[in-house]
């Protein structure tokens, strides 16, 4: 089996999908000849031509609006927003149009679009290249939201998203593009070529949207995370020597509530970790669900570890970034409660 970076896995997913279905088209800023700012689409234009992989003007609203029209016509656009921070001009198109087409047409029309976007920090991108806006999409009925944590999942989930009849927001943690970053910024990053989840089949496969994965079995406390924070949580549990069960959500909407409830009911303790701003972050929804469904199993209050309620600070990147130290302290807190 080939070993791929997450960039290569995402590219392979689009390649496989375009080869299988002539209706799949890829477009966005600099995704054609240049191959994307992270090279996620490199070679696709040369292979499939300029009508199926092409560059657009710098207009996120125009990119998503065009994708919606093409989807209504019968195509399957997979578009790229160059950074998640740039999605705000397209938010109206996503929430008022794409998310509502099935409902407004009583099922006569669907909107099979995928909106890819690099998300999160850890690359010293500053306040306009480091945001994690996933919670803004999970509040919108009609959208699906995916955040993979590794190349194997990224490819299988992206193919599933492209084949899905409804709009899917596909957020790619750019800190994971080349290796499973665990939050220890002072250490060299292990490349995906040396990680089991860097093994990715060349051909077609899918991973069901809405199904979480237990990355580490444990009985003392449940840690719920997604994206880069999965690797941070694994490192924190190892560093602290705590028998933590780590759940990788993979899909935020739909959410695999059954896996969460099963784990927290077993451990009786829960820590929720995400990189996005704390207030109204997706972790708040997870905590509410744990409280609602696991109250009589809880042995301690549920704790969140997240980013500060500030713009992403360039000068204090590693203080803002929820690293293993902060997660480890949260684990100790719930274990001592």
UniProtKB/TrEMBL annotation:
SMART domains the record matches: Transket_pyr
Domain of life: Bacteria
Enzyme class per UniProt: oxidoreductase
Domain (Transketolase-like pyrimidine-binding): residue spans on this chain: 4-179
GO terms under biological process: branched-chain amino acid catabolic process; response to nutrient
Plastid as UniProt keyword: no
Enzyme Commission no: 1.2.4.4
Protein name as annotated: 3-methyl-2-oxobutanoate dehydrogenase (2-methylpropanoyl-transferring)
Organism, as annotated: Rhizobium johnstonii (strain DSM 114642 / LMG 32736 / 3841)
Lineage, top ranks: Bacteria, Pseudomonadati, Pseudomonadota, Alphaproteobacteria, Hyphomicrobiales
